[in-house]
Specification:
Chain B: It holds the Pfam family zf-ChsH2. Chain B: Residues 36-67 form the ChsH2 rubredoxin-like zinc ribbon domain. The structure holds two protein chains of two kinds. Chain A is an alpha/beta fold. Helices cover 18% and strands 25% of the residues of chain A. Chain A has helices at 9-22, 118-123, 131-141, 180-189, 215-222, and strands at 25-29, 54-62, 65-74, 82-84, 109-116, 128-129, 149-153, 168-169, 172-173, 177-178, 194-197, 226-229, 242-245, 256-258, 262-266. The model of chain A has no long low-confidence stretch (mean pLDDT 95). Chain B has two domains: 32-161, OB fold (Dihydrolipoamide Acetyltransferase, E2P); 170-411, 3-Layer(aba) Sandwich (Rossmann fold). In chain B, 31% of the residues lie in helices and 22% in strands. Chain B has eleven helices and 15 strands. Chain B has helices at residues 32-39, 93-96, 157-161, 179-190, 210-215, 229-239, 265-291, 319-339, 369-382, 391-402, 404-411, and strands at 44-48, 54-55, 70-74, 78-87, 101-108, 113-118, 126-134, 140-146, 170-173, 195-200, 219-223, 245-248, 302-308, 345-351, 386-389. Chain B has a seven-stranded parallel β-sheet, sandwiched between helices. In chain B, β10 (195-200), α5 and β11 (219-223) form a beta-alpha-beta unit. Classes of the chains: A alpha/beta, B alpha/beta. The interface between A and B is medium-sized, with 19 and 17 residues.
Amino acid sequence: MKETTTMNGDALLSALASGIRGGGVRVVDLTHTLAPDFPVMVLPPEFGQCQPFRMEEVSRYDARGPGWYWNTITMSEHAGTHFDAPAHWISGRNLPAGTVDDLPLDRLVAPVVVLDYSAESAADEDFLLTRAHLEAWEEKNGAIEAGSWVLFRTDWSKHLGSDKYLNLRADGAHSPGPAADAIEFLVKERDIIGFGTETIGTDAGQGSHLEPPYPAHFILHGNGRYGLQCLAGLDQLPARGAILFAAPLKIRHGSGSPLRVLALVPAPDVV
Amino acid sequence: MTDPIVRPPKKDPQKVTRPPELPPLQRSRAALAMSAAASRGAFELQCCKACGAWMYPARDACPECLSVDLAWKPAPDGGEVIAETTIRTTVDLYFRQRTPWRVAMVKLDCGPSVVCHLHGDVEVPGRVRMTAQLDKGGNAVIMALPAKRTPNMADDPELRELTASPKHRRVLVTDGRSAVGQAVVEALVNAGAALVFVGIAEPWKPYPGEDRLKAHENVQTFAFDLTDTTSVQDLAGEIGGKTDILINTADHVRPGGILSAPGMITAKDSFDVNVFGLQRLAQAFGPGMVGRGADGTNSAAAFLDVLPVYALANTPDFGIHSATAAARLSMLQCLRSEMRAGGVRVMSVFTGPIEDDWRQPVPPPKVAPGQIAKAVIAALEGGIEDSFVGDVAKDVATRFRQDAKVLERELGA
């Protein structure tokens, strides 16, 4: 993943800083607000459940604490916009550096490729991203570089607040996601860092019926790759050229964590 | 015949809400047993075990034979009104707000003569049926009712003070996703509730019965999650000022005991709904209800919780669930005392195992949601503080009163 550059570190960072400060580089938020009414993954009720975000006020300039306002928050590691570490899935259980307290830092700040399948997802709520789609995409846009995050844009985040976000029916959830061959291709042939989605999970709503079940979870985490889900604002990212900041909380032995996902994107040229 | 009460007009925003006063609260320790019986809807008097004489008011010794061996038991409820009067003015703050008030002297068939509240439809002299009811202060009072039902009988103003009738009242049902919640909503509509507010947790998840629930004209559904303090506060902010009756039908039930259900998450979920959910409800809606305890025809009247009878003793196959129920009962006891200041009744409807997905391995008899709904309405209309629905609940309650330790051993065998 090492690339040579003609600038030294000082010059690079200073160029970046002036880009952020003076235009040229824009910071974009890809995170939903953590709120109690943000839906969480639905599992059969006899299993342990994903705890949604909850907030209890400790004090608010009142008798409980006259000069200060603060809250106690509780939630699952997998609530809101969140990061999945390899240990989240059984396929990744024996890997080194599988939990969020033990991740290589250079994976948490990395270039990002955005695959826009929002039109396909609007037309087909069960749209499956396949290897063939990726090959066609590369044909047009060039190959996905090793060491990139790959984000799957579906504009699904825009359904938040309506039933369509989870899109639950008697036969389960219906939302787009990747097929096994697409994830195999990205992991084995393109060596990506991780795969991110706008939906409640990295897998399709009907992902449990694919082979293997939940292919994104199974293949990504089985190969030490990461997942990001419940992302927002992917329509603000270019297909390539942005840098993603996705650092989960450093929770001892944690399987994942809610996080603030930011991206640095080239600002539109000032004319 | 009683004039039917009419639906009250919209509240005049310039008028001060009538503050809730309470009827006289003091009772002797002996008299508390009468309140306990009345809380279960029973008319009990003391009876001398030595000579068989019935007595009233409560005594420490038999007025006939001086025996101190007295027992409270269900008394024959027939009687004859021998005198009546109507109080038109008084210095008592509670009754001052409510005059005229009809009072009678009734000669009970079992012996004693009692001074009691008198239903407007009773003709004097005439036969009456006696009932012991809890007043707004939580104490038993006796009321003489017509021997036979009369039209609109429940609308008598004195009797309405002693119940929490849903007629013309606005009611919140906390869990519209469940069959129990839906049955209660339907029963309330049929019982004449003016409006039924229904809480729906996680409305983005479809649930059976949704269409039917939303089809009722007087039913409004709201996103409402007992585990989310903000959500409970938000709804209280919206409808708390006009919630006259609050019915908590939420119950998070999962099978398993302490050793057989490892981990904390399911237990936390259960406590969060069943115990802390109740606390959130009480803290968000309670103060407003207490302030509106005397607010006319649709005053705040009751906070009713539908809870498992295993609040009384643990059934280890649903051990954690029973523990939440016990905590819930304890909370209700605290709340009952706190809400008494506003004359708002805190009612418990204890149920046996409900016929639902989680209780499939539990042998019958089980309770159907419709039975619970019926009991909820009966509790409100009858002013009954503790009701027990289904054979299991009744049996557990009886055995609990006999010997709680024996019950514990039987359930835990």
